[in-house]
From TrEMBL:
<feature type="active site">
    <location>
        <position position="158"/>
    </location>
</feature>
<dbReference type="GO" id="GO:0006313">
    <property type="term" value="P:DNA transposition"/>
</dbReference>
<keyword id="KW-0229">DNA integration</keyword>
<feature type="active site">
    <location>
        <position position="260"/>
    </location>
</feature>
<protein>
    <recommendedName>
        <fullName>Tyrosine recombinase XerC</fullName>
    </recommendedName>
</protein>
<dbReference type="InterPro" id="IPR011010">
    <property type="entry name" value="DNA_brk_join_enz"/>
</dbReference>
<dbReference type="GO" id="GO:0009037">
    <property type="term" value="F:tyrosine-based site-specific recombinase activity"/>
</dbReference>
<dbReference type="InterPro" id="IPR044068">
    <property type="entry name" value="CB"/>
</dbReference>
<dbReference type="GO" id="GO:0003677">
    <property type="term" value="F:DNA binding"/>
</dbReference>
<dbReference type="InterPro" id="IPR050090">
    <property type="entry name" value="Tyrosine_recombinase_XerCD"/>
</dbReference>
<feature type="active site">
    <location>
        <position position="133"/>
    </location>
</feature>
<dbReference type="GO" id="GO:0005737">
    <property type="term" value="C:cytoplasm"/>
</dbReference>
<dbReference type="GO" id="GO:0051301">
    <property type="term" value="P:cell division"/>
</dbReference>
<keyword id="KW-0238">DNA-binding</keyword>
<comment type="similarity">
    <text>Belongs to the 'phage' integrase family. XerC subfamily.</text>
</comment>
<dbReference type="InterPro" id="IPR010998">
    <property type="entry name" value="Integrase_recombinase_N"/>
</dbReference>
<keyword id="KW-0132">Cell division</keyword>
């Protein structure tokens, strides 16, 4: 509650700390006061040896470090034995962005003559038109949308931060069609949930179901759904940011639109555009090679 963490983050931290507790127990350690720095380092090594991805290992060690900081703050132990054990630095990966033509194919994939098809098109247009995270999209309520005048949406992001983002014309049209022609039909089976995006039973669409929608539409559009370039819900967010920067948007504006706490997080997208410039130069300039 104090840190405004999402339910998914809490579930991950609980799983990470349960794994840590099991390892301490296996080593005969029953109290945090008995833990030594070597025990924390050994846990990190076991995570790596167990094949855990660098990002997952980093999160797990962050949870462990948080536990020991808490123990010191609450005076359960005298010293923070995890203070000098740092999480592994994850490899810097450039976000995967779709070409505009690929986005057009993806957004055109849902059928426009069924209630679920109208919902799916509105969902995809909303994701790409606002840069919303999948959790922000399925968490949006009707009252969060303002589709008259300057169309906007309120998104509730990480850490309890709320931001107001513009809704583009295509997304607005898709949302209006869904809200007028499809949502009332879906809502008949439910209990009056305020969610924008409903499932076939009239309840709030889940993250997993939204992922399934994207997977199905990516297949229909001929886009990859497996392997390193597989289309995921975050792909549309990456594409949103990359296309804004390609169009000349200021990185600070994109930071606000994405809801990043630090501009450093947003700057990774500028690397994508530089790579694109290099590719165009290499294939177009007569003296490039």
């Amino acid at each position: 509650m104090e840190r405004g963490l999402s339910r998914n983050t809490l579930v991950s931290y609980r799983r990470d700390l349960a794994r840590y507790a099991e390892q301490l127990s296996a080593a005969g350690i029953a109290d945090l006061a008995q833990v030594r720095p070597a025990d924390v380092s050994g846990h990190l090594a076991s995570l790596r040896d167990g094949g855990l991805a660098s990002s997952s290992a980093a999160r797990a060690i962050s949870a462990v470090r948080g536990l020991h900081r808490f123990a010191v703050r609450e005076r359960l132990v005298a010293h923070d034995v995890a203070a000098d054990v740092h999480p592994p630095a994850p490899p810097r990966r450039l976000p995967k962005a779709l070409e505009v033509e690929q986005v057009d194919r993806l957004l055109a994939a849902p059928a426009a003559d069924t209630a679920l098809g109208l919902r799916d098109r509105a969902l995809l247009e909303f994701l790409y038109g606002t840069g919303a995270r999948i959790s922000e999209a399925v968490g949006a309520d009707i009252d969060d949308l303002e589709l008259t005048g300057e169309s906007t949406a309120v998104l509730r992001g990480k850490g309890g931060r709320t931001r107001l983002v513009p809704v583009g014309g295509y997304a607005r049209t898709a949302l209006e069609s869904y809200l007028v022609r499809a949502r009332p039909t879906l809502a008949e089976a439910g209990r009056g949930t305020p969610a924008v995006f409903l499932n076939a039973r009239g309840g709030r669409l889940s993250r997993q179901s939204a992922w399934t929608v994207l997977h199905r539409c990516a297949l229909a559009a001929g886009l990859p759904v497996d392997g390193p370039y597989a289309v995921s819900p975050h792909t549309l967010r990456h594409s949103y940011a990359t296309h804004l920067l390609d169009g000349g948007a200021d990185v600070r504006v994109v930071q606000e639109l994405l809801g990043h706490a630090s501009v450093t997080t947003t700057q990774v997208y500028t690397l994508v555009t530089v790579e694109r410039l290099r590719e165009v130069y290499a294939t177009s300039h007569p003296r490039a090679r």
